[in-house]
Amino acid sequence: MEEASARERKRPREGDASEGDARMREVWKRLLEAASGKPRYTYLPIADTLKVPGVRVCLFAVVAEIGAAVHSRGTDFTVTLRIVDESRKAGISATFFADNTALLPCVKSSGDVISLHDVVIQHHGEFCVTFNKKFSSFALFESKVSAECSPYQTSMKCHGRKHDKELLTQMRTWLPNNPLVRMLRQLNHPFYLKDYLYPGRFYAQCHVSELF
Questions:
Q1: pLDDT, position 196
Q2: Residue 56: is its pLDDT beyond 70?
Q3: Strands (E) located in the chain
Q4: Beta carbons of 58 and 117 less than 8 angstroms apart
Q5: Which residue range or ranges hold the Telomeric single stranded DNA binding POT1/Cdc13 domain (predicted)?
Q6: Which of 117, 104, 106, 127 is CA-nearest to residue 61?
Q7: What is the tens place of the pLDDT at every residue in 149-191?
Q8: Residue 68 CA to chain centroid, in angstroms?
Q9: What is the mean pLDDT of the chain?
Q10: What string of DSSP letters covers 36-88?
Q11: pLDDT at residue number 72
């Protein structure tokens, strides 16, 4: 009797399983559409991309934190941003690599909008977005509703699409209701991660990286 009860408790509810399966089918459907050569990017919510690590995806998100550009351990320069959207308000880090700093995203202000194309979701202790300079691309837009819909910076491989304007408008409308972005915009200056690290902590991070 007790064994039967235990099996019943472990058995997933049919409604939850079917809902999860339907969600995954929708994610893969969008990914297949993106890979089928259709003349536009298929953007996914950040939360959905976490279910398909290792696959190239496209994102439309808000820049919540801006890191400082630094020289990587190789020949590249790198910068890390934290991006958010309605599906994942806690955000996710996005790391970019380029041959020189001029090719890295130069975000004017926290709260600006970024579109990312053919980036890869990876998991190294936590999920992160990786920008590959060989095939990924990006575009940056101002957050103001009254601003133009044209990006103020694009990478060389970036090719915008007509429907990007609709997504940009939606993102700009969502911005005022996001408490994190609202707080950062009130600071009235770029948010650099290095400015908010304790000196001892920053030294420890540098020291550990040298060990590897």
A1: 38
A2: yes
A3: 56-66, 70-71, 77-85, 88-98, 113-123, 127-130, 137-141, 153-154
A4: yes
A5: 43-176
A6: 117
A7: 889 999 988 876 667 888 888 888 876 555 555 555 555 444 4
A8: 17
A9: 75
A10: TT-SS--B--HHHHTTSTTSEEEEEEEEEEEPPPEE-SSS-EEEEEEEEETTE
A11: 87
List Cβ neighbours of 114 (8 Å cut-off, separation of 6 or more): 59, 60, 61, 62, 63, 81, 83, 105, 107, 138, 139, 140, 141
**Nearest in space to 111 (alpha carbons), one of 86, 143, 81:** 143
The residue count of the chain comes to 212
Distance CA 104, CA 78 (A): 7
Distance, in Å, from the CA atom of 69 to the CA atom of 158, rounded to the nearest integer, reads 21
CATH placement of domain 40-211? 2.40.50.140
Lowest mean pLDDT among 11-15, 28-32, 58-62: 11-15
Name residue 194's amino acid.
K
pLDDT of residue 110: 87
In what helix (H) or strand (E) does residue 211 lie, and over which residues does it extend? helix 199-211
Tokens of 11: 């058995």
pLDDT of res. 57: 94
Count CA atoms closer than 13 A to 61's CA, side-chain side: 29
> Using an 8 Å Cβ cutoff, are 184 and 196 in contact?
no
State whether residue 92 is helix, strand or coil.
strand
Q: Tokens 């103001």 appear where?
A: 144
- Distance CA(181)–CA(69), nearest Å, equals 21
